[in-house]
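Our preliminary data section would be incomplete without showing what the modeling component actually yields. Below, a chain of 732 amino acids is followed by its predicted structure, encoded as tokens that our downstream tools consume directly.
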Amino acid sequence: MSRLSIALVFIILTSFALSQAEEQGFKLTSVQLLDEVSQIDQILQKEHSERKINSPAKIENGLLLRRIFLSAAGRIPTVGEYQKWVHTNDSLDKEQLIDHLILSEAYSSQMFNWWADHLRAKSYIMGQANQIGAGFLYVDWLKTQVSENVPYDEMARLVVASEGYPWENGAVGYYLRDDGMPLENMSNTAELFLGTQLVCAQCHNHPFDKWTQMEYYQMAAHTYGMVTRIQGNTVEEIKKLAKDFKKSGDGMQMMSMSSKPDQLEKQARAFRQAVQDMLLPLQFGARHKDRKLKLPHDYKYDDGKPHQVIQPGVIFKDDGDLNSSESHDLVTQYAHWMTSPQNPRFTKVVVNRVWKKIFGRGLVEPLNDWREDTEASMPKLLEHLSKLLVRLDYDLREFQRVLLNLAIFENQAHDQELEPLAHYYFQAPILQRMSAEQLWDSLLTLLVPEIDYRQQKEAVDFLQTKKVNLEKYRLKVEGMSSEELFEVIKEGRKQIVEIQEEMNSINAQMKEAVEQDDRESLGKLKRLQNEMRDNQRSALATQIMGDEFNVYSMYKNYPPKRKGQLSPEEKKFPSYLRRASEQKSPVSADHFLREFGQSDRDLIDNSRKEASIPQVLNLMNGGLRWRLIDKHSPLAKAVIAEETLGQKIKTVYKAMLQRLPTAKEIELCLNSLPFPDLPTTPVLKESHTPKQKEQILQKAKKQKEYYQNKVHNELRHLAWALLNTREFSFIQ
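Predicted structure:
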């Protein structure tokens, strides 16, 4: 073949590989991927050779399948997925599997959990902003970013420089999370994106690092102008008019509707609350203002004076240009400086976080406290990975695609305990227990079909309606003059007071129900009270928008409870059986997820993996164990589909541990579990009458059903036993 022909063939093959990669949404072709993997493998091999570290043995493909699924999909594979990817010759196309998973809904689900931990994304946040669902809108925004695979540097800029109302830009939830605490927010930003603990320097020079209190305030000055109480001119004008109205004759007349002083006060309070509720959606968001930060009154160092106005400055002054952004906005400049590739700390910190996510330990430990003398266990590797992430344009999906294909990912897990700050040279991933989310989602994989696509559609649709209606309300209110809005308030005052009087009557009835211990009546009265409060809250907004407008959606985060019976599907699989990413963020304190260490999302990456007695009791006696071999579950259906007892046992092992049982384990199962004897085959003779034949067949049918039910019940015990093993709950 001529050189020209060879060149043409190479060009064609390369173009084909590139088109395939682009079609799948990848930046790297298969050839480029393997080249990047090879370079990293060589760095690791050289390190291991110099330190005389032996590589552990490779794990079998079933366990490798399990490890890949837990890392890329956040759950174990189903029986069907096991059979699809682990072939009869025990081969596994690792690269193809990884590509398949990181393009899946499952990948987005587990990445949301990871991001929510780091961005402290909470459905319910502190403060009044919670009343318009700012937390839910923040969580929804984050899900969208993850689903669309927004590059890491862009996402960081979006949250740090966010502005607007939460329904139009959910990223402002990052500031509303720390409503009224701009200094604490800056500390969180530095810890999250720069791996630097600055919080100690808020009150004095850092006792364990080089940062001064002055440097802390210089950093904080960039975002100090980010305010979360927007309160535009309309809000301020209405408050002034309301104050004037209270002093007027009309205002005094309104207060004369009742003769009792306590009633007057309650009516006045209700009126004020209604006005506040009307203005609530217009008061919370994020806006950049020219607000100056001053040193505290007790500042004691020579480089400044108490109450001195601080000019913005940055740490890591030699890395990156603060003025590299074309924007004149201070916050935007700051965001661009922080996320610039010329600021190496930003890239290295996220590389370290993702490396720990996959291999169980960072190249730098601890993750959130990089100091002047901090050294990575493998500096050359960290440097190489950082350059790779920059070349990949901060695409974390693509970056993890590379890491999951590394040779060390296939090695037997390192099961020796390490000192917290000790260097580890990554001859294998660290043996670690599943996270709370991985454990929950893995259990649901056994219990519920198509778990990756199971959403609470009504809640999702309701949130979208909420966004649309809040924007409609904003446009309507901002299109009205303050005088027009105030006329609405005056016209609605009678309705507000009437509702308050009804609520006062309900409160009196509730007291009586409590005294009589009438719980049924008390429950009804509470529901009625909540309904009246909703009516009062939305009275003025309804008057502005009209009766056809869904005011409920502005002040609630979930759709009204559906009346009527559950569907057959809902009876089989209740709505709470959804992946961790589809639950509230985080779930309530008594939930399985919190019991097993889900982050409270008050602090960055605050999850736990420590074992506890309550965890053991939950796995042994919790409600989920009874669903393991429920007749509707994927596990049960896979077991029932098998003919022989031996195959059924193997299916349970494949479903839960992604391996076949050993001969000894099968023997133990057969000897320890009281499986019934196989029913005999019915014998029909010519001498039997039709009625006798029918009776024989009916008896045989009942025996077979009894046998299957008994076997099914014993396999439930087997599944429960495997659930409580270390092998199930740990990433081997």
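The beta strands are 226-229, 284-288, 432-433, 730-731. The first helix runs from residue 3 to 24. Preliminary results of this kind motivate Aim 1 of the renewal.
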